[in-house]
Specification:
The complex is a heterodimer of chains A (about 325) and B (about 325). Chain A has a single domain (about 5-320), classed as Rossmann fold. In chain A, about 30% of the residues lie in helices and about 25% in strands. Chain A contains 10 helices and 12 strands. Chain A has helices at about 50-60, 80-90, 110-120, 125-135, 155-165, 185-200, 210-215, 235-240, 245-255, 260-265; strands at about 5-20, 25-35, 40-45, 65-70, 75, 90-95, 170-175, 205-210, 220-225, 230-235, 305-310, 310-315. With about 325 residues, chain B is an all-alpha fold. The relative contact order of chain B is 0.13. Classes of the chains: A alpha/beta (about 325), B mainly alpha (about 325). The structure holds adenosine-5'-diphosphate (ADP), iron/sulfur cluster and magnesium ion. Adenosine-5'-diphosphate binds near residues 17, 19 and 27 of chain A.
Chain lengths: ~325, ~325
């Protein structure tokens, strides 16, 4: 078992948005997990299931509706002004859209230098050196510092976004679908860069993606999300070899297996219907309408995330 | 039949004319390294905008006319040996000639001197009012959008209320309290004119707040002031500039209108609107007294609007490749 200490502890985290007079959108509805120091936790789920909201609440971009997030044992919601600013140095985010996440009016140098300016980490020549260094670390070069974001390709922009987070030496980075907007040929490069940086700087990642195939390579453990809740959480290997939740099985069966024989024999589970709306959800299991095994209890009681095998958590009544 | 054949032959001939030869595919120059790193040469946003503006003929014409009017407003009154308020009752209502280039009015004042003095006042009011309206609008709209919540609600209700009061009421109220002249006029325009700007800025900021680059700066620990000054204002500055350019002619027109109906600038001080008012009294007998200031007003407003349109096109980021 992994003995590293937990850097992030998320306990019953909820984030609800008021979207109308009596409508509450439960984007994140009771998350429980930990991320150990130096580890990558993958988080997958269909678009709109609350992954970004979860990531943003964890780095304090949003205030949690309920529950708590502990960073290094300290509750981030109770931070005072100074601690909150300190936390922005420790916890960073890489965004999904490399075109929208860089200020079009700033040079790359200033975009990367902003964190240094805000935290007063370096000035003048030293600042410049740091920017050049980090540009080289992410595979760009110092000539790029004086250019504007629109002059770069998607992959290069994502590298700039990574450099911006990296330059202030964070300990934890939320990678919010950092490769979904990139060409397939570039995706691997960016993932490999992230893996290399993690090793070199002992970073801890929450790596968000919308399909399982993307997170497999980078994650130590993977959490599968459905409508604001985690339905299954296990080590990367266990999850792929022995998925237990009906939703995870369905997700995995949609990924083609490179072996044609296995691929033909594979049992396909198709997902029926659409993802239900997260606004005023009905009681019981969130997956009930699309689940082939749904029983009466599923419509009444929300299944809790339980450890059904060693380090393998599932939220489903079938496991009882 | 024969005709058809001829047509066919012509078509074939044409095809041959446009058929491509290997020479047409000459390599114009590829820089592999550059292709990999950068897709276009590094030009700043402003250089780019200026390049586009220069290509726009009507906008350049607008700039040209504005420059002439401005220069004349500065030097015009000094080009003649008369002052705008010196009357000469021996030479009233003189038609334009070598002595009085634009003629004289009913009190014998030189219209050339008065027109350019009037332009000075009108332009000054226009620029001052536009600047004040926009700055107040940006500050209040910025605060409202940035802070949100109750403060935002409160500010927006005040804006709604002020907006529902016709500006003429403000003008009259202020004139009653402060009296007539340039200052009360500017005050009245500014009080009513910042509302639309505040709304616009607030709306833009609410949109920008959701932008990932603003979220990224927040994640880096940027304060609200920093977000506003470093990220939001620079990204809406083009919209602000266009609004500012458009606010100048509308302030000039409001001033002209109020002066024309006798609520604005009072003689002997003058403005383009006030000149038109005096001119209109003599319209039937001495039409030039009305026509000359009217032409200057129209040209000024037209050219500022042309420039505003041109700026909108040149600065619009959606046009950017
Ligand atoms: N600021 C917000 N206000 C209201 N609803 C929101 C807001 N942000 C996200 N949502 C809603 O929350 C749900 C989860 O969104 P998100 O976290 O972006 O999903 P994901 O990143 O998994 O695609 C969606 O239904 C989305 O419409
Ligand atoms: S709890 Fe019931 S409905 Fe939900 S996944 Fe399990 S079997 Fe299906
Ligand atoms: Mg998302």
């Amino acid at each position: 078992m992994d003995e590293r200490k937990a850097l992030i502890e998320v306990k019953n985290l909820k984030k609800h948005f008021k979207v109308g007079k009596n409508a509450i959108l439960k984007a994140v509805d009771g998350l429980n997990f930990i991320i150990r120091e130096g580890e990558t936790l993958g988080m997958v789920g269909e678009s709109g299931c609350g992954k970004s909201t979860a990531g943003r609440t964890i780095i304090r971009l949003y205030d949690a509706t309920e529950g708590e997030v502990l960073f290094d044992g300290k509750n981030i919601q109770n931070f005072d002004k100074k601690q909150a600013k300190e936390y922005t140095k420790d916890a960073q985010m890489i965004f999904q859209d490399p075109y929208a996440s860089l200020d079009p009016r700033m040079t790359v140098g200033d975009i990367i230098g902003e964190g240094l300016d805000i935290h007063g980490l370096a000035k003048g020549k030293e600042r410049q050196e740091k920017i050049y260094d980090v540009l080289e670390t992410v595979g760009l070069n110092k000539e790029h510092a004086s250019r504007f974001p629109h002059e770069f390709s998607g992959g290069q922009r994502q590298r700039i976004g990574i450099a911006r987070s990296l330059v202030i030496n964070p300990r934890f980075i939320v990678c919010d679908e950092p490769i979904s907007a990139l060409d397939v040929s570039i995706q691997a490069q960016v993932v490999n860069l992230l893996i290399k940086l993690q090793r070199d700087f002992n970073l801890t990642y929450l790596f968000i993606a919308h399909d399982l195939s993307m997170v497999k390579h980078i994650s130590d453990r993977v959490a599968v999300m459905y409508l604001g809740a985690i339905v299954e959480l296990a080590s990367s290997g266990d999850l792929y070899l022995e998925p237990m939740h009906p939703y995870t099985k369905a997700l995995l069966s949609s990924i083609p297996i490179p072996d044609p024989k296995l691929e033909r024999e594979k049992i396909r589970i198709r997902l029926e219907g659409d993802v239900p709306s997260p606004i005023n959800p009905k009681p019981g299991c969130k997956f009930q309408d699309r689940c082939a095994y749904a029983k009466d209890i599923c419509r009444e009681v929300t299944p809790e995330l339980k450890e059904v095998a060693k380090e393998h958590f599932v939220a489903c009544h079938l496991m009882d | 039949m024969a005709e058809e054949k001829l047509e066919q032959e012509a078509a074939v001939q044409k095809m041959e004319d446009i058929a491509l030869t290997p020479q047409d595919f000459e390599v114009v120059g590829i820089n592999l390294a550059e292709g990999q790193t950068v897709s276009r040469p590094s030009v700043s946003y402003w250089q780019d905008a200026w390049r586009r503006l220069k290509k726009n003929k009507t906008a350049m014409l607008g700039i040209f006319i504005i420059l002439i009017v401005c220069i004349m407003a500065i030097v015009g009154p000094f080009m003649v040996p008369y002052t705008y308020n010196g009357n000469d009752l021996m030479h009233i209502n003189q038609s334009p000639d070598g002595e009085h280039w634009f003629g004289t009015d009913q009190l014998g004042r030189d219209i050339w001197a008065r027109v350019w003095q009037g332009s000075r006042v009108s332009l000054a009011i226009g620029v001052l009012v536009a600047l004040l309206q926009c700055s107040i609008g940006v500050i209040i709209g910025g605060i409202s959008g940035m802070l949100g919540g109750k403060i935002d609600m409160f500010i927006m209700r005040v804006v709604d209320i002020l907006n529902s009061i016709p500006y003429l009421i403000f003008v009259i109220l202020i004139m009653v309290v402060v009296g007539t002249g340039i200052f009360p006029l500017v005050l009245a325009f500014v009080i009513t004119g910042w509302l639309s700007m505040a709304r616009l800025v607030r709306g833009q900021i609410l949109q920008l707040r959701e932008q990932e680059y603003v979220l990224a700066a927040t994640t880096l620990g940027a304060s609200k002031t920093r977000l506003l000054l470093r990220h939001m204002i620079p990204n809406i500055i083009s919209i602000l500039i266009v609004q500012l350019t458009m606010a100048i002619p509308s302030a000039i027109f409001s001033e002209a209108f109020l002066s024309f109906i006798g609520l604005g600038i009072q003689p002997p001080m003058t403005s383009l609107g006030q000149l038109s008012r005096t001119g209109s009294e003599m319209m039937k007998v001495y039409p030039y007294q009305l026509i000359i200031p009217s032409i200057v007003i129209s040209l000024t407003m037209l050219s500022l609007n042309l420039l505003g349109d041109g700026l909108r096109d040149a600065l619009d980021p959606r046009m950017r490749q």
